[in-house]
Amino acid sequence: MSLWMKGLDTLVEKRYRQASAGMKLLANPPAADVWTSECEVAYKRDKMRLLHYAGGPQKKSPVPVLLVYALINRPYILDLQQNRSVVQALLRSGLDVYMIDWGKPTDGDRFLGLEDYVERYMDDCFDVITERSGQESISVLGYCIGGYLASVYASLHPERVRNIAVMASPLDFGIEEGMLHLWTKAEYFNPELVVEAFGNAPSEFLNSGFTMLDPLGNTVIKYMGLAENIEDKEFVDMFFRMENWLSDGIPVAGAFYIDLIRDGYQRNLFVKNQLRVNSRKASVDSLTMPMLAIVAEKDHIVPPSSTLGLLKVAPSKDKTTFSFPTGHIGLSVGSGSHKDLWPKVAKWFLDHSKTPGSKR
Amino acid sequence: MAAKRTGAARAKPRGKPEKSQPASSPLQEIMESQLELWRRLNTKEGTDVGEAAKEIAPIVAEHWAKIFDEMWRSAAMMQTSENPVAIQEGLPKHLLANYNEMLKRVFMSKSFAARSGSSVRGLLEGVKAWNEAMDGTLKALRIPSKADIDEIHEELYNLGKRVDYLVKSLDDGDARRRRERRR
After folding, report:
1. CA quadruple A179, A172, A293, A121: dihedral positive or negative?
2. Among the partner residues B89, B124, B146, nearest to A193 by beta-carbon distance
């Protein structure tokens, strides 16, 4: 009985401390600022902005790296916090970093499809970066759906892509893993209906699906974790930043949503070498440049096999895979990823940017 | 009058209720419900439910077995542990993690995908019907509807693409002329 009393004493004391810290937090929630690094807008078209980060030390490579973020949620997850920023990690290594912020689509953007994102917006960004850097080709790093966009672009314009890295990207949709791959099968789901009903695919609709991928982990268990660590300032700051990001969802342009689900998830046209963009074939046979796949072993959104599937069919002779024991978002914000993974990724880009490619 | 009442009672003997009346004994009630379930399972919907149950029931059973195992194990450990409160505190985490895994497996089942797919389809059809009704109302009131605005958006989008194409053609033409001049 005394053991119970002793344990209860400790527990009550702990809960009291946590409750006090919780009350303080409610009274003064952390600012949870995002977009950590300084940048300039190098180019703007419609709602898309090309950001250039110039704050790093002396550049060790003239070949810039373009970060292509997904069309779901905002890109500042790659620059969330000073010590957990992918942008900062690449800058510190001496790379010249650009990032695409696609902006928030409105009703008027519902007709934007894969062709517009790849052949209009991305192509413009490549024009600007190659002009500014004096390079004929640049490196590109695509995260999640951004990896799909980057790969399709690289297959259409291989001469402009020096190296390509895809991070947690759904590329081979023919796999039989992951809930999204199952739920989006043609017999269960019709993306046209979503667009007919809403115009764009609303962020609430997408988020409800993502929440169900880890139903209690994304709800009850997450908040239990906050309660347990409520006295840890760094944890709380990070938690609030993540919550800010998660609640800052954006809709996906209607036409792109149909392109992604129908031609990607349901027909797997790209890996099958049958995808056409603007009546041109996006051939995986063109992917001869060095390729890097960064996969998260515990990714419940994009199974690693989906990302690695493209490397299997691409003819490139220089293929590297970095597999890391974390989740989909942990790749970009996890402390372990920033300690062990990102220095390796930056080194890969530096090592693969030594060959001459300047047009000046 | 009393004799008449008695006669009426005899005409409807006890223990044999009419079809519309509820079964009079628990056993009959159970049999009726079993028969009703059997009838429903013979329909398309019933078959689907049966198939879903066949796929999902083992998952649920497996996880609940794990949940109960964990509870009994924790109860036994609490008797001998030096910190029984810590064990009790850790139990909900184990249970939630297990329950979470169970939900993930259920959501990953084909039956769930089919059911949720048809629910989503129903919801989207409902939203579409609502939009159409709103459009009709707005049209009747001579107010531009969402469909009208979408049409304008589409026109603008197509116009933008054509302008892009023209600019690109001009750029290509300029580049070609520059090359020819150099020659």
Report:
1. negative
2. B124
